[in-house]
Amino acid sequence: MVVGTPLLEVEDLAISFPQERGWVQVLDDVRLRLHRGETVGLVGESGSGKTVTAMTAMGLIGAAGAKVLRGSVRLDGRELLGLSETEWRAVRGRRMAMIFQQPTRALNPAFTVGQQIAEAVRLHLGLSRADAYKRAVEALDRVHIPNARERAKDYPFAFSGGMAQRAMIAMALAGEPDVLIADEPTTALDVTVQARILELLKEVQRDTNIGMLFITHDLGVIAQVCDRVSVFYAGQIVEEAPLDRLLAHPTHPYTAGLLASVPRPGQHRRLSSIDGTIPDFMHLPSGCRFHPRCAHAVHGRCDVTPIALEEHAAGTARCVRADELSLDGVEQR
Amino acid sequence: MTLLEASHLVKTFGRRGHRFHAVDDVSFTLAAGETLALVGESGAGKSTTGRLVLRLIEPDEGTVRLDGQEITGLDQRRLRVARRSMQMVFQDPYSCFDPRIPIGDSVGEPLRAHFRLKASERAERAAAMLARVGLGTQHLYRFPHELSGGQLQRVAIARALMLEPKLIVCDEPVAALDVSVRAQVINLLSDLQDELGIAYLFISHDLALVEVIAHRVAVMQRGRIVELADTAQLFEAPQSNYTRELLSAIPTIGPNRLSVRRSS
Predict the structure, then answer these.
(1) Model-level pTM?
(2) What is the nearest CA distance from B120 to chain A, expressed in angstroms?
(3) What is the ipTM for the molecules in this complex?
């Protein structure tokens, strides 16, 4: 059990984006706690709010024209929402860093990988050019890029996807941040490469005690790296639990549906699916946002008033029937 | 009964001195109503193999036979006729439809191109096929951007079915879809196979998925098939080191696949 002030704490976060016909609220009541040395997974389907949450925590949503309706994001107890751009720059990269799905697109093709990492080091740590470059080579070595001194002189096109993601991790760590946000960092990679990158991230965490927010749609990946998991659906967190409990005893029907839809050894010909489709934000269902697709929905209870994310005996979930349902998870071992 | 027979396919890209063997001596057969999965990592030659089978690209060497007819030797006119029995479904459905043409017209298009059917008849058959893949008639007049990825992939499947093909090459058909929707599309493909006896050449990097839906699996690495076996056999007793490496890298939410098998 982790105690004390969380490293990163998000409370009651609500975000709107401008659309042709006014504002659309895409996040509602998002809460997260991340401690040092811990990995919290954000899992959900596209458009569910995982990335918007991360972008808000990094102070990057203003650029998209988004508006914070309410809520708070605190780093070591200090409020980040409302910081000026200058103040943000001291946080972004330095205290919190981020890696993305497409590492080759995040690197500038016109500079060598070494130069780009050195630039980040210089910016964050204020070292001289020569010292910063030395640090960059060390950083590449630390993420196990073979022959780092020579590879630092290469341009990004000469890096494979896996190597480029290692370079991005090196760059993200250059500012010695406390929080690393990884947004689908292995989605574009082959499985064997993915396995090595996940191993590297775990190793980095052991060495630096960094807190990690890990965004993915892949429950298999979540199961490899996370300590706790928040499940997103239509802009809200519908369940929050320690990894083992989430997998073995899901409390929200959507979580159970997601787990069931993952292909399993020995299954034949058919996958378990969740009927229907994700609602769009302009036409959200009344009551529980999942109720039109939920086999357990009860008329008059699930479709009337908005449901809160609450601690039930069964677990923390946004479901009025949490304690009545006994949902199947995945047998562990 | 053997429907498809690919023999010693070779395809190289690049110029002299920098030739790269994308597909290097690949042979396999596919029976009617069967699913053969081609798995492997990016650059292994899976998609190139799929395209060679349909002759969307020309092989340097080797032959493809469909129902005994050699596809590789056909002239353009005969190839066009042969293509009625083989179709393809791609990963990104949004890039497979003309954004300015209503869904119903796109689905009916193969009937115009191949059989010169009247518009009213095409619309009728398109509506019936959309219903078959679980989409109502209201979708006939919608445009691609108005549909979700999962819905549009169903439309792509409907269009592929219009000419009653015997073979569909599915190139990562669910890789771009969300988890809950992916299951719907996979189940649709399974149901269609059971009812219509279509064969699938199913190209995928997702081994966990392949284990559920394929009858046989061919593992590709650097342009070659390194292992080809019945699905259960491949997953229970992989013969090549590369297959073992791939299997052990699959992130699972249950117990690890190989360790389970070893202990059981």
Answers:
(1) 0.89
(2) 30
(3) 0.82
